[in-house]
Write a structure and sequence with these properties.
The protein starts with a strand and ends with a strand. Helix 5 (160-164) links the parallel strand 10 (148-151) and strand 11. With 243 residues, the protein is an alpha/beta fold. It has seven helices and 14 strands. The radius of gyration is 17 Å and the shape is globular. The longest helix has 15 residues, at 68-82. The chain has a domain at 1-114: Metallo-beta-lactamase, Chain A (4-Layer Sandwich), CATH 3.60.15.10. Bound molecules: zinc ion (2 copies). One zinc ion is lined by residues 59, 61, 133, 137, 154.
Length: 243
């Protein structure tokens, strides 16, 4: 499967880029994970909007769902232009009723996932871990049968990440804080925490994402690398990983 980073900022996007959004592709199937601010614009540099087969959301904070509305308008306009009736499934949890209800529109349908169970979407099997965040949020462990990726979504540190990420080929983490900061109150992790998770979980490659708007991002890489022996990459638009 192939992962492409579309948006990687925490909170709000820097000019010309986007907050959380990742494309996951296998054969002809395309899953969009989170649809942050700017995601729809940036996505079109890489993929036809109508070529997306499904969307899944970790939680309903704006930096993960801001472009759901314009994605729905895009499907509405294109469905008329192309004269077809396909409905785009958007998977979300139901612990925020209002957020979940907004997923259904003329050409999109909100589908509830049960985080207690594994979910199959196209070629992907997904299991969930509740994160430590001010609102209900779920991290995902996704496999296509060949390789495994883990996406922490938004979370402060919890030991559960180590087991959940065990032996993953790729770990994409919330790395919104530098090593000397404390992300606990905000519900985010530091570079050192995610490096430690990657090391203890025996992960192959770590992508630092949900990046802060200040400081030198290379410091995040250096700090994570102090505790993790594997490969550490900084999220950037267009970054791809394939296995
Ligand atoms: Zn976020
Ligand atoms: Zn959040």
């Amino acid at each position: 499967m192939k992962v492409s980073v579309i948006g990687y900022w925490g909170g709000y996007p820097a000019p010309g880029s986007a907050t959380s959004a990742y494309l996951l592709e296998k054969d002809d199937f395309t899953l969009l994970i989170d649809v942050g601010s700017g995601a729809l614009s940036r996505l079109q540099q890489y993929k036809d909007i109508m070529a997306i087969d499904a969307v899944i959301l970790s939680h309903y904070h704006y930096d993960h769902v801001a472009d759901i509305g314009v994605l729905q308008y895009a499907w509405l306009v294109q469905s008329y232009l192309m004269e077809h009736q396909d409905i785009l499934p958007i998977y979300g949890h139901t612990e925020d009723k209002e957020g979940f209800e907004k997923l259904t529109h003329e050409f999109t349908e909100g589908i509830a996932y049960n985080p207690e169970e594994t979910l199959t979407i196209g070629p992907f099997t997904i299991s969930f871990l509740k994160t430590k965040h001010p609102v209900p949020c779920y991290g995902m462990r996704i496999t296509d049968g060949d390789s495994v990726i883990v996406y922490t979504a938004d979370s402060s540190y919890q030991d559960d990440w180590i087991q959940f990420s065990q032996d993953a080929d790729l770990l994409i983490t919330d790395c919104n804080f530098y090593a000397d900061q404390d992300g606990t109150g905000a519900g985010h992790m530091t570079s050192r925490e995610v490096g430690m998770i990657a090391e203890k979980a025996n992960v192959n490659t770590l992508i630092l994402s949900h990046l802060p708007q200040y400081g030198d991002h290379q410091d995040l890489v250096n700090q994570a690398s102090e505790v993790f022996d594997g490969r550490v990459l900084l999220a950037e638009e267009g970054l791809t990983w394939e296995k």
